[in-house]
Amino acid sequence: MKRFYKAVSVGEDEGGFRILLDGRPVQTPAKNPLVLPTRALADVVAAEWAGQGETIDPVAMPLLRLANTVIDGAANHEALIAAILRFGENDLLCYRAHQPPELARRQGEAWDPFLEWAERQFGAKLAVAAGLNHIDQPPEAIAALRAAITAFDPFALAGLHVIASVTGSLLLGLAMAEGRTSPAHAFKLSRLDEDYQAEKWGTDREAEIRAAALARELDKAHELIALTRD
Asked: Which of 168, 81, 97 lies closest to 129, judged by CA?
């Protein structure tokens, strides 16, 4: 689509902030009003619009795409919470390697502090197993995680869902949201197995490109949470 506007601005609206293109408010793909909860988030989304060239590239507007998803999917709030909780029920940090011992050691040293933190912070004591066979987590731990994520506003919840999807871990998502770890560190923690295999067998260029794209998604999801809470 060719760029059809010249000026981009931010206007206040009841309940939030609007992006204005030549004075006209932007709508979502589903024709809902694009109302953002904080001025900080609205300013960044406005900058995405302003940064477009002669042709509009939606890929270059990741925060706009996330905001659209939140607003157009507002009716599915409970379904989103359930989807996020599944990452807690099958959290990456709870599944450790049988072999080799070196990888299992790295996992324990890197991941155990986050399990301990989740128990202290939320009262969620998760079980840990070796291997890939599913383990049922204690219902009270899952209930504690549900209580933690229910406190998130819809925009932060969407960011958390992206983080959990990329890392395979709700605990890493919560740790990022609470400032316990950075996006770069969380991404590295989620890829201990891949990095170990790369050390042994070398890297694959296509895999590196995919990993870089996932890391960018993680950064933007973290930014969404931070801007929502500004």
From this structure: 97
